[in-house]
Design a protein that fits this description.
- The protein has one domain: OB fold (Dihydrolipoamide Acetyltransferase, E2P), CATH 2.40.50.
- With about 110 residues, it is mostly beta strands.
- It has a 5-stranded antiparallel β-sheet with strand order 3-2-1-4-5, with helices on one face.
- The chain contains 2 helices and 5 strands; from the N terminus they run H-E-E-E-H-E-E.
- Helix content is about 15%, strand content about 40%.
Length: about 110
Amino acid sequence: MTPNVDEIYGDSRSLLTTKDVQEGKTLRVTIKSVKPDKIGQSDKIKLVLELDNGKSFALNKTNAQRLSEQFGANYETWVGKSFDIIRSFTMYQGSEVACLRVARKLE
């Protein structure tokens, strides 16, 4: 059987991806709900945000920590909060790839 991204991550049309954020721009979103969930066939639990734009955003550790810094460690209190997402780059398996980051809150 040929490996398929949707089998690992589920139907990616409902997930926020780098294609949803233009390079050099920010995307302002508001959190409608937060729930811990498994993504695809992985056993790892991640926080998944349902956003006001109809997309879901699965948080990696970096993005979860940034939201925790902005809104507090209790993720249940994040509902209704707005934040910015930016397109960035990270190293993955020796290559630089596009990624989404929660923008740091300016002090």
